[in-house]
Amino acid sequence: MKDAQPKAIYRSEYQPADFEISETRLDFQLFEDHALVKAELQMARREGADAKAPLILHGQELKLLELKVDGGDAEHEIGSETLTVSSVPDRFLLTTLTRIRPQDNTSLEGLYKSQTMFCTQCEAEGFRKITYFLDRPDVMSTYTVRIEAERQRYPVLLSNGNQVDSGVEGDRHWSVWHDPFAKPSYLFALVAGDLEHIADTFTTCSGRSVDLRIYVEEKDLDKCDHAMASLKASMRWDEEVFGREYDLDIFNIVAVDDFNMGAMENKSLNIFNTSCVLANPLTQTDAAFQRVEAVVAHEYFHNWSGNRVTCRDWFQLSLKEGFTVYRDAEFSSDMNSRTVKRIEDVAFLRTAQFAEDAGPMAHPVRPDSFIEISNFYTVTIYEKGAEVVRMLRILLGPQDFRAGSDLYFERHDGQAVTCDDFVNAMEAASGRDLTQFRRWYAQAGTPRVGVEAEWEEDSGRFTLHFSQSCPATPGQEQKEPFVVPVELGLVGEAGGLRLQIEGHADDPDVEDNTTAVIEITEAEQSVTFTNLPEKPVPSLLRGFSSPVKLTFPYQREELALLMRRDADGFCRWDAAQQLAVAVMQDLREGAEEVDQLLLEAYSDVLADTSLDPAMVAEMMRLPGVGYLVELEEQADVHSIFKAREALRIALAQHLQPALLARYRALDIDEPYQASAEQIAHRSLRNTCLAYLSLLGEEGIQLAVEQYESARNMTDQMSALTCVVHNAAMDRAQPLLDAFHSQWQHEALVVNQWLQVQATRPRDGVLEQVRGLMDHPDFDMGNPNKIRSLIGAFCSANPEQFHAADGSGYALLGEIVAELDSRNPQIASRLLTPLTRWRRYSHGQEQMKAVLESLAQRELSRDVFEVVSKSLA
Ligand code: TRP
Ligand code: ZN
Fold first, then answer.
1. What is the rounded distance in angstroms from the CA atom of residue 257 to the CA atom of residue 670?
2. Which of 186, 374, 414, 582 could bridge across to 123 with cysteines, CB 3.0–4.6 Å?
3. Looking at ligand 1, which atom is closest to the CA of residue 259?
């Protein structure tokens, strides 16, 4: 058992720091078994702070070698996570010299080594592992940084801002960087390594030229063009859509292999996981290309939403993350298909975020407390946070929303602020009272919206009765009603009907008034549409206008009608999903045949050549097991999996000739491009192949042929997946071996090779995963490898992870126990599937037992918080 249990900290206890740091000068001397960090901090007592308050700095795993206040000795005390200087004047220069060991830092936060390179990750609280500091986002300072290292091993030395000096001394060299923008410590970055780069320039809207560079290992120079193109597109887009211009003369991206997350927005020195920057058609799939585009944009957009305007404290994390995810989603929508992007985002939100909101880790978009902030980089903060911003845009309309955004940036440039400041700006710019809307920040849980319809044939009146409620979440028993914008239309046999809402004058400006936004603000509320020529089918929550679980008692014929006729692409897709859920339910209840209505509706979708092929692919894809689990209080994974497989096979059999015909027709001759059009073609073609490969030898043969003739990783990987997931292992193994020997020198491809094996939904996969953990290409120190093998097995192979004998849970327990002391952030994240243990009809006791045995151990704060909340 642990001796001292970690304690929660509370948003309500926020106090500004007693001291400010106007200027920070750092000097790094990098050696092979340690580094020396000299810090000179220009400090002042904050106006209004207690005149006697001691200086308490954060620091972890540091060896203090020297401390001076204004050049003289000062009494101080070193705690396990703090340094206290009991008596200091109101203004002073604090000088410290500390020794750290980046080489031994396996947590990948602070200063650490990734392969041969030194790099940093300071968000959220990693800077305190570099030097003693006020490591909190509301303490902002300008930085001047000197880096000195061996010239041969580390020819490239980088930090934030501009290089202002450099020089050589024997076999060592040094470089000095100055960042003129005051920033919080979490945005500090340093890189030293043997790197090559590609360069480009961007001319901003006011005519300034910015030097852009992407730094990688030499062997990856051929994989940088897509990231560079994405960066330039993001810079232009932010000027045009949000009026945001870049503010320095230089913007650098560095790719590192060992990284806990996707990427980090350090001021002018973004550090990226290689998986989010490298893209070459031969080695990366279309999905990876799109991820690179989105992450490059996300980090770039943080320069305004996060850096120029930052967070007051970490409870406000969604202020920057929710807003920036909203911004990157809008960017991706403009670059590719808006509807397809929306469908992908909603599918993810409904699976991962709804599950989080329904489990023991549920928290509001602006949490009230946490034990370890690293655990709060969640789908709720990011994706639900983005949905909240999106609702503001729906409620305010595009003009007022943009005015609110402009006002927010103007009011708060250079400040560390709160989610409330953001809503205040939206309120001021629009003149709208957002008091009730603020509940989206305060209340956790996914609201339920039930809808019922009443049709009056004689008068042509159609009434929708809405009711909303929200289930209890930890610490929040009762919820108040939310503001729920429900965008809707009414669909007749021939398509969308004109909307006239009772009590509302017809808006003469709106030509196409077939869609409306109804704001549900009460627990129960109704709206009546008049003068309708026929009984309509309501198309509800168009574009998924709010993050709620909406239910309407549709007839299957009505869902089929929406699939064919709805003007809203999201609702067409959602109707297909709902129909599939209903038919899978039939199968689970013993039906022997698949409802003909579904087969015909899906057949029409597949035949519809007027639809964007990417959209057809989305509509053909059945709801995932994770989503289906989320729909039930107590889910039986195996019964869900079986029904889903049965439906997939029935669809493949019924549609075989059509699948084969579209497969053949979609063959692309042109050279690879990551264009929306080509990606759409490959996506549908590979969706057809996935169905065909369920039909036995003929389909498998087709996949093998595609594997052998593939000229890009998307087609090669799709074919490999079909064979590995659907054929016998003796058929799959030769392909896996060939793939490995072809790509063994490409780390990111080897990760895909691990992942395709870990997600094989067949018996024996657990032994395979255990075997791969001993493979020379696996590495417990590398988060990407852990995610590809173990993360994928535990969260993307539900059928096998939930094996009845509990072997999947046991594996996860062993790995978390081993990993926790090495990299607590990754250990904690891996545990997510086990936090949901109460939601399964089988295996509850086994999952709980794994959590309980972890609870007996000495744990990091990260894993302690997840384990203890899951068992509470
Ligand atoms: N701010 C980063 C982002 O853009 C998140 C991030 C990167 C992070 N690395 C991290 C958060 C390490 C915690 C720990 O989303
Ligand atoms: Zn971010």
1. 32
2. 186
3. 9
